[in-house]
Structure formats: structure tokens, C-alpha cells
């Protein structure tokens, strides 16, 4: 007789493993199936985020930032260095260790919460009385049954037509995170989040990086003021951008890669590089899930169709994370996983899409929550804006990191905070205050009247809130 579970989660990324843990906490008998393999063929739960996404990219960003500081900024602190070098193999090795620590941590957490872990591919076999039969194809193939199923199968990198990823010259995020030596010339297609983060890593280590972007503008989802400031900083650092391009050919027949494209003026151009990262978005992944066996509905992008509560068209089948609509972010996947487990238990799990923070871990960092100035204008909302530069913040000056600003957007009548946009040092950490404030429907004045430690970068947040009422104290 097959093993029976109350809940089977397919996919052990941030959406899946967190859903499994929360469901187990709520008293369900839970299994989690994940097929990711480490380099020895063993289990490596954590999904894209842990293996080839959030965690390894931040490890490499940290290493390369240390190198950049040592190369360019130590001298101003009076620290002299000679014979500075970078051992890329060691840097990538450290990144792999960080990834493994996270894989092991997740296995431990699943065990601690009594979630049964299956290493292999989960697919629908058929619907049965009161649930579903799931095939697990792995080292030990078996069939398990579930009363309810949570699908958290994530996403894959989108390839350019005619330029399949070979992970040697044409790289997805996976190959971009394990380049073995600094390429002299690196091309990046797409100036989105991955392009900027990975482009920054290899630019800091000495690569000549050119980013080709199809859209005419930079970072359309960010506030225009933030995008403008960030582009200025990235260009000054040496990243080269071309906007409004149309790629026509990627040729890998020679030593490197030659990209042929039409530039914004319609002229044909060629870019010759050693390696090419293609980061033009991601596609929902249902490969191997066998959705046809049970009639699971997908949309025309291949995403699993869900309602606002993450319910699919099938009774007892839910889906969360990158494989459904909404931003492809680890924390969004986690929140959906928790909410679904709670809904299964009859509770009222909730995900507030209006307060999901975005962070780009470049230098300067970019972070925002809520609506941008251009969105508020398009929505016809009357708002007040307040902005404070890090140049006028004592802690930023002491850090030697004064690029950027904090910007508040508040309702013109009620003063409720509608959006907070940060470009500058530690924006990733500073944005949390804005998220909390917006969750509590705070006004800009609430933040302006709260005591912030001195000297701290968070004082720039308080000052930007004061700026909404045109009464900054330090600018
Ligand atoms: P995934 O993490 O993709 O996990 C899905 C899991 O399901 C995988 O382990 C996969 O092997 C497994 N699976 C799929 N099908 C099956 C099957 N049939 N049977 C068994 N297992 C299966 N987001 C952030 O919020 N912050 C960041 O800093 C950030 N950085 C990123 C950097 C990069 C380079 C990339 C590529 C992404 C980054 N993201 C970041 C996005 C983040 O990784 C995703 O939003 C997140 O991983 C989605 O989680 P998920 O659980 O939906 O899917
Ligand atoms: P993206 O959606 O952020 O950016 C893709 C860029 O490629 C866009 O600017 C788009 O206009 C451009 N593009 C699309 N087709 C193109 C073409 N044919 N030629 C040239 N440019 C083209 O996608 P990206 O960078 O691949 O990242 C995928 C997702 O992963 C992100 O949207 C995000 O959800 C997640 N992620 C999150 C991170 C974070 O939170 N810090 C870090 C990295 C990824």
C-alpha cells in the first residue's frame, strides 16, 4: 500500500519547503518532494533561490564587493595594499559552501518538523477518491497519495530564440554563478535584476561588461528618479548599457560569442564577448509534473492558473511561488506557502501584494515598496513627495558611501505612505521600516516623529518622511 499523506508538496524551493513546514506545524502529515541534485547527486533542497539564485548571487556579490573596496576604496581610509589578487576558484568555492550550508539547513528543518522528504521528481499519476496519487521518480521510485497537494515547482531561465544555453559561452543564471575565471569581455542581455547583479559581480572583478536591453528605458518597474540615479552610478562604475536594441543573432562558432543586434537608431551592430549572460526573464516550470493526467489548468505563459487564494482549478490542489502569477521573488513564494498551509487548516492566511518589497543587490542597492511616482500619476492619485540624500547623512559619510537617496510618496490629503523608494547603501535593510509602516497604514508624519538612532542610515528615512512636509532638519 502506498504511503499516505494529508499534504504533499511538490518542489522544495522557498515556496514549497516553507509551505511544508507551516503545514506540519498546523498538524498535517506532510511530504515534500524535490528533485534538485547537488554535484554528488544527493538532495539539495531550496530550489532556484538556494542553489542558483538569491543565496549564491549574494555570496558572489559580497566577495566581489570586498575586492572592489580593496581595489578602489581602502586607500582613502589610509589602508595600503600591494599585489591585490582574486582567486575566482576560491570565491566560487566559498559560494558553493554557503549554498550547501543552506541545503543542509533546509533538510534539518524538514526533519525537525517531521516532514517526510522525497528526493526525486513528483508527478501526478491520477486523481483518486479523496485525493491524488503522485509518482515519485528518483533513486527509489514510489507512489504516494495525498489528500491535498501544493505545487511549488518554480521557474526556469528564458532563452533567447536561437541561442540555447550551453552554460559555457551562453549562460543562464546557473552558468553565470560558476564562471571559472574573470572573462575579459562579458555581454549581458537584459538590464533587469539578474543582469545588474551578475553584471556587477564580474565588472567588479575586472570584466568589461556591456548590457544590451530591448526596452528604451532603464528599470521601468522602479521609480523613475531611482532608476535615473542608479543608471548614473552604474555607468560611472564602468557598466556599459545600450537600450532599445533588437537581438538578431548569437553566434558561438568562434572562440567567443558574437551578438548581432539593431541599436535604438536602427543601425546593425555587433558585440564580441568571451561569455554571454542571457537574463531576459523566467518562465514558470511545470516540466515533468504531468498536469494532463489530472486536468490541471495552465495559462498561455505556462503558469498554473490560481485564484487570489492560490487555489487551482482542481479540488485540494494549490500552487504558489514562481509557477503562478505575481512577482518572481523568494519572499512572495514563502508568504504564499504559509498562507496556503493556513487556509488548508481553515485559517485566514493572507498575502498583501501591495507591500511586497523589491530589492536589487547592486552597489548602490535599490529597494522599494508600494507605488512609484509614475504609477501614482497614472492612477490619478494626488500625492506629496519627500526626498533626502545620503550625502547629507552622517553615517553614510562615515561609511564613505553617499550615493543615492530615500524618497517618500504620501497621499496629498491623508498623508498615508503610498510608496518608499531607496537607492543607496543598505537599501535592502532600510526598506523593512517602510514595509512595516505601510502594513500599519502609517502616515509620513508617523515616521517623521519616530526616534531613529544616530548616526544611522535610517535617519535618512526619517528625514525623507520629514521632507514630505518640507521640514527636513539636516538638509
Ligand atoms: P524554486 O525556488 O524554483 O523551487 C522549485 C523547486 O521545485 C526546485 O528545487 C525544483 O528542482 C523543484 N521541482 C520542480 N519540478 C519538480 C517536480 N516535478 N518534482 C520535484 N521537484 C520539482 N528572489 C528574491 O526574493 N531575492 C533575491 O535576491 C533573488 N535573487 C535571485 C537571483 C537569481 C540569479 C535568480 C535566478 C533568482 C533570484 N530570485 C530572488 C528569485 C527566486 O529565486 C525565486 O523567486 C524563488 O526561488 C521562487 O521560489 P519557488 O519555491 O517558487 O521556486
Ligand atoms: P527581469 O524581468 O528582471 O529583466 C529582464 C530584462 O530583459 C528586462 O529589462 C527586459 O526588458 C529585458 N529583455 C527581455 N527580452 C529581451 C531581449 N530579447 N533582448 C534584450 N532585452 C530583453 O528578469 P531577470 O533579470 O532575468 O530576472 C528574472 C527574475 O528573477 C526577476 O524578475 C526577479 O523576479 C528574480 N530575481 C530577483 C532578484 C532580487 O530580488 N534581487 C535577483 C535576481 C532575480
Features:
475 residues; FAD/NAD(P)-binding domain; Enolase-like, domain 1; five-stranded mixed barrel; five-stranded parallel sheet; 13 helices; binds flavin-adenine dinucleotide; binds 1,4-dihydronicotinamide adenine dinucleotide
What is the radius of gyration? 24 Å
The domain count comes to 3
The largest sheet, given as strand count, sense and whether it forms a barrel, is: 5 strands, mixed, barrel
Kindly state the mean pLDDT as a whole number? 97
CATH architecture of the largest domain: 3-Layer(bba) Sandwich
Quaternary status: single chain
Helix and strand content put the structural class at alpha/beta
CATH class of the largest domain: Alpha Beta
Distinct ligands, ions and cofactors found in the model:
flavin-adenine dinucleotide, 1,4-dihydronicotinamide adenine dinucleotide
How many helices? The count is 13
The CATH topology assignment of the largest domain is FAD/NAD(P)-binding domain
**Range of strand content:** 25-35%
Count all strands and give the number. 21
